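Q: What residues go here?
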């Protein structure tokens, strides 16, 4: 493995982790939006606050990691993507900011009207953020980001591959969130709430799985390089994702929620890995390869040292945080 490929692998590992943990975070907005009115939806929204409250800020560590690694290791491609895709990226950033602010402010609303307003903003921004991030991924994977950054500001991300990417990203987030929320509800003894979330999670999971495979039809014509990769070197990962996603549906159907969370996470992680393997060795598909886009060797070496330190220092703390929240042990502190 060359130095450039090692750094690219470290970069994409951050994308995979963010798609799983950040996705579970964003996906809670779907269940907030479909919870119902103030009285009927109170139990769901309380569960969402309880589930994501301790971790929602920590999940964005991975987005920061990805962006910093990208612009440091592969600055030319970062500049090209930011220039061509600034509009969907700004909309995603706006969603992240509004989501965080509304999530915090809703807890301290003075009136029911204020709480409803912040709830609408939270749910809406939670839905649009993964959609626009998926559109960005689709634009890069379909070869619509030229190396000089002069791509079309609209058609670069409003196209079949990008739109399917956005829908799949949103559906994956909701499927992840549902698997965690239903497990939390069952573990807390809220059987009625768990049953309601179970039905919705099954529906979202089945729809998202269908979207993933339906997307292959337009991608064949719209993004031939990606299609060849997905049906070639990435095919084993796509098959694993399908098996994990189907297994998760069976586990949720049979109410084995604790195990189902890991199956859903595996399905999302492997489909994300499949995207990366599908467009390899391109960083900007049909424009710039990973090796050609890389910066100086000294920079790449320093980045790998930084990644090693992060793995040693940050990962144990984040892992312990997730252990506390998923086992309810944090309530004892």
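A:
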């Amino acid at each position: 493995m060359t130095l450039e490929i090692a750094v690219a692998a470290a970069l994409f590992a951050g994308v995979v982790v963010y798609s799983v943990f950040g996705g579970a975070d964003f996906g809670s907005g779907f269940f907030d939006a479909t919870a119902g009115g103030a009285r009927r939806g109170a139990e769901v929204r309380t569960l969402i606050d309880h589930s994501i409250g301790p971790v929602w800020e920590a999940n964005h560590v991975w987005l920061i990691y990805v962006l910093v690694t990208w612009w440091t290791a592969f600055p030319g491609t970062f500049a090209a993507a930011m220039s061509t895709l600034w509009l969907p990226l700004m909309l995603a950033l706006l969603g992240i900011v509004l989501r965080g602010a509304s999530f915090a402010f809703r807890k301290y609303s003075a009136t029911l009207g204020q709480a409803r307003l912040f709830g609408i903003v939270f749910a809406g921004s939670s839905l649009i953020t993964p959609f626009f991030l998926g559109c960005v991924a689709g634009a890069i994977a379909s070869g619509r980001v030229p190396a000089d950054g002069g791509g079309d500001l609209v058609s670069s991300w409003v196209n079949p591959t990008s739109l399917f990417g956005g829908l799949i990203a949103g559906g994956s987030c909701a499927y992840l969130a549902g698997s965690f929320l239903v497990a939390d509800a069952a573990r807390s003894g809220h059987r009625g709430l768990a049953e309601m979330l179970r039905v919705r999670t099954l529906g979202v999971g089945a729809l998202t799985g269908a979207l993933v495979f339906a997307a292959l039809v337009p991608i064949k014509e719209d993004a031939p390089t990606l299609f060849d990769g997905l049906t070639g070197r990435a095919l084993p990962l796509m098959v694993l994702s399908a098996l994990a996603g189907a297994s998760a549906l069976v586990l949720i159907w049979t109410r084995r929620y604790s195990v189902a969370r890991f199956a859903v996470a595996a399905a999302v992680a492997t489909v994300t890995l499949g995207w990366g393997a599908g467009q390899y060795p391109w960083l900007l598909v049909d424009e710039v390869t990973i090796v050609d886009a890389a910066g100086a060797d000294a920079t790449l070496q320093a980045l790998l040292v930084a990644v090693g330190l992060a793995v040693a220092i940050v990962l144990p703390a984040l892992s312990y945080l997730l252990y506390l929240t998923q086992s309810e042990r944090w309530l004892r502190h």
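A: Context that may help when evaluating the design: Residues 248 and 277 are 23 Å apart (CA to CA). The mean pLDDT is 91.
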